[in-house]
Write a structure and sequence with these properties.
Blueprint: H1 6-13, H2 21-32, H3 43-55, E1 64-72, H4 88-97, H5 102-110, E2 112-120, E3 130-132, H6 150-169, E4 172-180, H7 185-195, H8 213-230, H9 237-244, H10 247-261, E5 266-268, H11 271-283, E6 291-293, H12 300-309, H13 325-329, H14 331-343
Parallel strand pairs: 1-2, 1-4, 2-3, 4-5, 5-6
Helix pairs in contact: 2-3, 3-14, 6-9, 6-10, 7-8, 7-9, 7-11, 10-11, 11-12
Length: about 350
């Protein structure tokens, strides 16, 4: 049996390359020659420049699009932090499998394929469309001890890397991160509390599934207790992930690493997927260059994460569903950015001198 260690994880993160700034500069100069005022398309121009840096291509294109939904349950639900029972995680996996969830509807519209991974649910029977990569049947209650062991966290990350590698082999050019797990805004807020706010959950705990003020206050207290019980190290993202994180969050960290190794861009969704992005960037700062913020969730921790990573969301839709819905909605924007580069006339096409 392979012993999972930090060295194993470091071997993977060390394979992530720095962005290709020569390709980025070539695209920036090409955009200056397009028949428009300089930088007048704002974030669209930033997107395609960043895509060039990620892919190393002077004319990047978005072809096969994939949504990876990592699913897991959380022992902390026993503390009464969610408006929905834990069984909903399994029910939603079945909903994803038959194409009935919001992410399925939006992915069909955008031409993206949805892949549902059970990395840590309590469900004992899974539809054939759900890929069973269960590390364990839910995390332990982080209010009473670590959510998982460090080895389990590493195993979940490596599972995500493997999923990404398989999708790259199948032709994927763009990853959107999705998740499902009743109670998972609690570990997400806990991760932000430790890694950004020096162990303080104040001001970043949101309503998740729609809890009332009383439960919201209780949820913040549960997170504070989990931090006190586990004493996660704010300077150690893996330690923090294992103690107060979630298996689906760890799996998404792995997807980010696997995609970046193969120069594929990754679309973050809301607070949970972005918490995975935060952990990934703390494990390997170079990963920040491979991430795109898509929308701004109403969960208060989301804006805190994006500011910390240095990413600007392009959609403000007052969404908080998760599943990857916001990430999928941003796909046409990246495609539009590429089309500007490929199809828009230059000044020389109009008989005028190019600016550069």
């Amino acid at each position: 049996m392979t012993i999972l260690t930090r060295a194993t994880l470091n071997q993977w993160t060390s394979r992530v390359a720095e962005p290709d700034m020569q390709a980025a500069e070539a695209v920036r100069r090409a955009l200056l020659c397009k028949s428009k005022p300089p930088e007048s398309l704002g974030l669209l121009e930033d997107m395609v420049i960043r895509l060039a840096a990620i892919t190393g291509e002077h004319k990047p294109l978005i072809a096969k699009k994939d949504v990876v939904i990592m699913c897991g349950d959380h022992g902390v639900v026993a503390e009464g932090v969610s408006a929905f029972p834990q069984e909903v995680t399994g029910l939603m996996m079945s909903n994803f499998a038959v194409g009935g969830a919001a992410i399925n509807v939006l992915s069909r519209q955008m031409g993206a394929d949805v892949h549902v991974i059970d990395i840590g649910s309590k469900a004992t029977e899974l539809p054939p469309q759900v890929i069973n990569r269960k590390v364990k049947a839910g995390t332990d209650n982080m209010a009473q001890g670590p959510a998982m062991s460090e080895a389990e966290a590493i195993q979940a990350i490596l599972t995500g890397i493997e999923v990404a590698e398989q999708l790259v082999e199948a032709g994927s050019t763009l990853f959107a991160l999705g998740e499902m797990g009743i109670g998972n805004t609690t570990p997400s807020a806990a991760l932000v509390s430790v890694l950004i706010q020096n162990n303080q959950p104040t001001g970043i705990v949101g309503r998740g599934t729609g809890i009332d003020d009383q439960v919201l206050s209780h949820k913040e207290q549960v997170i504070a207790r989990a931090i006190e019980v586990n004493q996660p190290n704010p300077d150690d993202a893996l330690d923090t992930l294992a103690k107060v994180g979630g298996l689906e969050i760890a799996g998404l960290v792995g997807v980010i690493i696997g995609a970046a190794i193969h120069h594929r861009p990754v679309l973050l969704d809301g607070v949970i997927a972005s918490a995975a992005g935060l952990v990934a960037v703390r494990l390997a700062p170079v990963l920040r260059h491979y991430l795109f913020a898509t929308h701004l969730s109403v969960e208060p921790a989301h804006a805190v994460i994006l500011r910390e990573i240095g990413l600007q969301p392009c959609l403000h839709m007052n969404m908080r569903l998760g599943e990857g819905t916001g990430a999928v909605l941003a796909m046409p924007l990246l495609e539009a950015a590429c089309r500007i580069l490929h199809e828009m006339a230059t000044f020389s096409d109009l008989g005028l001198p190019d600016p550069v």
